[in-house]
Amino acid sequence: MKNTTLSLLLLAAVSASVPALAADPIKVTLQNHKFTPAEIRVKANTPSVIALTNKDATAEEFDSTALKVEKVVAGNSSGNIRIRALAPGRYPFMGEYHADTAQGVVVAE
Amino acid sequence: MLSALLIVFREVIEAGLIVGIVLAATQGVPRRGQAVSGGVLAGVLGACVVAAFAGELAALFQGNGQELFNASILLLAVAMLTWHNVWMASHGREMARELKAAGHDVVTGKRTLAALGVVVGVAVLREGSEVVLFLYGIAAQGGTTSAGLLTGGALGLAAGAAVSALMYFGLLTIPAGRLFQVTSGLITLLAAGMAAQAVLFLQNGGYINVLGGTVWETSWLLRESSIPGRLLHTLIGYVEAPDGAQILAYIVTIATILLLMRLVGKPVARTRPQPAE
Question: Please, where are the H alpha helices in chain A?
């Protein structure tokens, strides 16, 4: 866990020095309508990218008003979601089509 | 079932409101039913196509296909709404005269019917593709709950249609003389909100990277994800935490539409009555 956090922080730090397009994406998986990891840590005030792999057969919409993002990821495919530079804080997101289980949060610190 | 109803309702609100406004704005124009129902039909068909090829669409343009597509159709709608308002501003006086003189249906509004049909199509397409994906997902899972969920979806659709009717008949209570001004105002705000939304998609696609900082935050007052928040988001482009680029797009759109309306409206206002076309 600590390693993951450390590498994510490192990743965020690296992404700070390069344009958002070139940033190494943070890998997130959606399976059985649940996000793994459900808590994503990013460096505050730095853009990042979430690479969402949808392992379910059905499409899901990654939706977050707080992150200003809505992106449909088709079943059994993947998509990149740009996260803008965030002030420190917690930013919830959800899979809109399965909001009862597909919940997560981006933590900027 | 209730959750399905709520999700579908939330998605169809936007299209519902826009259809209501377009119907009110075209009050008295012959064959507007064709344009609006044509727009809805094209929107539904388009929504099914977009939903069926969601993966392929997303993969275009280095994974930015969805963002570019959404931004494009929103900007198309903004252009159509602008054209409608400007055209109405330049012909509004003639129309009023014709109404008085002949006392029959306004014929001149016909030309922008197609434009408003496109707007309806875009609104239905955007929200509809999400509804299709959602309902398809439910249907694909099978099981005993599917029937209930699909019923919820159908009820959600009906509720969206009710929003259309409410908007339309609500607007019709406005005296005919003022209706044009009200619908012009509503259409201007619709366009501004759509322009800001297009900017958001361009930002999420990485095409706009300036003025991205949040300027103000009003989620404590009204959450954008709530039903009233969603209604206001569609009607006036309410955003709980807008950034500089969104606000700029919003203001520039309103300013452009008002300026164009004023520019084309003036000569007509100053000249004496001319024979109708």
Answer: 2-17
A46-60: pLDDT as tens digits: 999 999 999 999 999
> In which order are the strands placed within the sheet that holds A48-54?
A34-36, A26-31, A48-54, A77-83
B238 at A interface, C-beta within 8 A: no
| Mutation site, A65, A76, A100, interface B, largest B CB count within 10 A | A65
Q: Does B120 have pLDDT greater than 70?
A: yes
Q: What confidence score (pLDDT) does residue A18 get?
A: 42
Polymer length of chain A: 109
- Using pLDDT thresholds of 50, 70 and 90, give the confidence band for residue B92: low
Q: Which of B141, B204, B240 sits opposite A82 (nearest CB)?
A: B204
Contacts of B224 in chain A (CB under 8 A): 65
Q: How far is CA A62 from CA A52, A81, B126, B144, in A?
A: 9, 8, 16, 27
pTM of the entire structure? Answer: 0.84
Contact of B8 with B160, CB cutoff 8 Å? yes
Q: Which residue has the higher pLDDT, B174 or A12?
A: B174
CB pair distance less than 8 Å for B137 and A87? no
For residues B63 and A81, what is the distance between their CA atoms, to the nearest angstrom? 9
